[in-house]
Amino acid sequence: MFSLSHHRLTALCSTTFLLGTITLAAPDPAGMDNLSGPVCEAAAPAVKSWDFQKDAQNWAFIGGWSYSGDASAVWDAANGGCLKVNVDFSDDKDQSWSEIKLSDGSVTKASPIRVGAGISQASFDLYYDASQLKGDAALKAKLYASSVKDNVVIDQPIDDMGTAKAKDIPGTTWKKTHVRVIFEDKVTEDIAHLELSIVGYLTSYKGAICIDNIELK
Ligand SMILES: [Ca+2]
């Protein structure tokens, strides 16, 4: 069930909910909540999302770790608007963790991400040129966040970007993968700083990658 796309899962939730209302002999609100709750968890609304429809939404390259190339993050009209990250791992192709840090500069202590009931997962779409990932080379990622209380509330490496199941972009060497990670600990403190890092693993990838539909929920 968890390999279904978001839309399929949403549809499944509606169906299950309807079946529940039909088959319950004596429906009571509490029982129906129990039926719909766990199944529909993945369809819960995002606490915060970025769809890059019109601009880069304050995301920018803020620095690297074991990364010696240049990088930039700019808005691009492709894919209904996305964040295009120009990377150059060519001098770091022997590194197993070469990191490009991206951050939404509008997230600060003065204007934090209000987590409400909490954040327990993150997801985003990644578009990349598969012809540049040969042999052992891979792209990985990391999510990092600190709270308004100066605690590190997310420090989550993402080793598997789902590239084995990535979809081809017809007529190109590009692929798209949907990355989703569930945190071990729910984030319950408002976020004052958020980073999404793109990590090169034994890769000399040089050029663009695109990120879209970042979601925290
Ligand atoms: Ca978009």
Q: What are the low-pLDDT stretches, counting only 5+ consecutive residues below 50?
A: 1-39
The main sheet comes to:
7 strands, antiparallel
According to CATH, the homologous superfamily of the largest domain is Galactose-binding domain-like
CATH architecture assignment of the largest domain: Sandwich
Q: How far apart, in Å, are the first and last alpha carbons?
A: 19 Å
Mean pLDDT, to the nearest integer, reads 86
Our count of helices gives 2
Shape descriptor reads globular
Secondary-structure element order, N to C: HHEEEEEEEEEEEE
Q: Could you say which structural class the secondary elements and strand pairing correspond to? A: mainly beta
- Kindly estimate the percentage of residues that lie in beta strands according to DSSP: 35-45%
InterPro entries: CBM27, Galactose-bd-like_sf
Protein name: Carbohydrate binding module 27 domain-containing protein
Keywords: Signal
Pfam families: CBM27 (PF09212)
SSE arrangement:
Elements: H1 6-23, H2 29-39, E1 48-50, E2 59-65, E3 72-76, E4 82-88, E5 98-104, E6 119-129, E7 138-147, E8 152-158, E9 167-168, E10 174-187, E11 191-201, E12 206-216
Antiparallel strand pairs: 1-12, 2-5, 3-4, 4-12, 5-11, 6-10, 6-12, 7-8, 7-11, 9-10
The protein binds calcium ion.
Keywords, separated by commas or semicolons:
217 residues, five-stranded antiparallel β-sheet, mainly beta, 2 domains, Jelly Rolls, seven-stranded antiparallel β-sheet, 12 strands, signal, binds calcium ion
Molecular structure report:
The chain is mainly beta. It contains 2 helices and 12 strands. Strands 1, 3, 4, 6, 9, 10 and 12 form a 7-stranded antiparallel β-sheet that branches. A 5-stranded antiparallel β-sheet has the order 2-5-11-7-8, with no helix packed on it. Helix 1 packs antiparallel against helix 2. The two termini are 19 Å apart. Bound molecules: calcium ion. The site of calcium ion has 8 residues, from loops. This is Carbohydrate binding module 27 domain-containing protein. It holds the Pfam family CBM27.
